[in-house]
Amino acid sequence: MLASKSPRRKYLLEQAGISVEVSPSGVDEETLSHTDPESHARILAEAKALDVAERIPDSWVIGADTIVVAGKDVLGKPGSDTEARNMLKQLSGQCHRVITGWCVCCRKRNQLFSDAVSTDVWFKTLSDAEIDWYIHTGEPFDKAGAYAIQGLGTFLVKSIRGSYTNVVGLPVCEIIEILLQQDILRYRDRSGEKEIS
Question: What CATH code is carried by the domain that includes residue 176?
């Protein structure tokens, strides 16, 4: 069960061969106190997963929260053209961090695993014309940091160090590792008849 309505997170899990159902969390992100960015993202991911796990206690639930950190500033989702422009100008020609807190839990089994993954992202130096064009595509407005690396915003990114899927919104490697370690997920041979340990 995915505690997120993000189509990107659902797509990443499905691309990895995991069948998921979506049950978005109702957690009010503004009510949680801010700590250091990694802890904040992890705590928010836990809150989202636990909110859904309370409603569906038999299911394994995956929660996640992604934030963009530029210097000491945490960049959320822009609410206007001006906010998007300011964020993109701040990121232009600079390195920033994308942090995704993740949580996998099952209320019935009283099990919870969580952590945060950080990826360094370098932007090219953007011209005003590039920023204006990108804003007018509409893509920045439901994305932390005002861009989507997997979308049109791919042209903004010069390089990354770390997990690409983390920048998209879910560190798939870490999620699959914990699912395998806890025997929630298993490999099968190509015929689908025998499990591979």
Answer: 3.90.950.10
Domain that holds residue 192: 7-196
Integer angstrom CA distances of residue 133 from 31, 138, 156, 167: 35, 9, 12, 22
Q: What is the pLDDT of residues 81-100, one digit of tens each?
A: 999 999 999 999 999 999 99
Q: Which residues are annotated as catalytic?
A: 65
Dihedral of CA atoms 83, 89, 91, 92 in degrees, nearest 10, equals 160
Return all residues near 143 (Cβ < 8 A) that are at least 6 apart: 77, 153
Burial tier of 190 (Cβ tally within 10 Å: 0-12, 13-18, 19+)? exposed
- pTM of the predicted model as reported, rounded to 2 decimal places: 0.89
Looking at the chain, list the stretches that DSSP marks H as alpha helix, in order from N- to C-terminal side.
7-15, 37-55, 81-91, 128-136, 164-168, 172-181
